[in-house]
Amino acid sequence: MAGESALPPDAAPLRGPPTGLFARILGIMNALGTLWIIGLMLLINADILGRSAFDAPIAGVPELVAFSIVGIVFLQLAHTLRSGSMTRSDVLLGVLESRAPRARHALLCFCHLAGGLLMAMIAAKFWPSVAAAFLHPERNFMGNPGFFTIPQWPLFVLVFLGIAATALQFLASALGDLRALRERSA
Q1: Cα 1 vs. chain centroid, distance in angstroms?
Q2: Alpha carbon distance 113, 175 (integer Å)
Q3: Is 28 helix (H, G, I), strand (E, B) or coil?
Q4: What sign does the CA torsion over 133, 76, 83, 111 have?
């Protein structure tokens, strides 16, 4: 059914205020991403107004937009996973829910563990780039030299934090699946 959640009641996304420190951190990261979107919209509109009305565009807007899109995605990725809003196909999960609920939880646990492992591997491989961008900002920048440049290390740090938080959320989801599997077995 279009527009409806395919999640069964026992797998409903987490609702209400976040609980625990990690959930609060994810909520803050998500809120910062939302505020960043609002700021980006204001910047783009100011650039359009400056171009149209005053023939004076704001320098670096395309670079800041490119920088921002990546930063926003990674700031909000872990919260998207936690809230159950990550895109996925639930056809098999729906069939398993009615026919083999334990198999459904086992499959989800496996997938969440695989997601956590993959994100941890990405974080480990990405860390040297973060360190290099931080230690040598003169070699790691975006933009056009002499016109507008922005260092890459803040973006790299945000991406790394987003990847690490998503890895932790995948692992937390796997623990929840394991707990649900045990409850189904009892």
Answers
A1: 26
A2: 9
A3: helix
A4: negative
Reading the block at residue 8, the tokens are 């069964």
Position 184 confidence tier, pLDDT thresholds 50, 70, 90:
confident
Residue 162 belongs to what H/E stretch? helix 153-185
Confidence tier at 89 by pLDDT (50, 70, 90): confident
d(CA 101, CA 108) in angstroms, rounded, equals 11
Q: What is the pLDDT of residues 136-180, one digit of tens each?
A: 998 999 988 888 999 999 999 999 999 999 999 999 999 999 999
Over 80: is that where the pLDDT of 6 sits? no
Q: What is the pLDDT of residue 17?
A: 57
Structure-derived torsion over alpha carbons of residues 84, 123, 157, 65, reported in degrees to the nearest 10: -60
How far is the C-alpha of 109 from the C-alpha of 184, rounded, in Å? Answer: 14
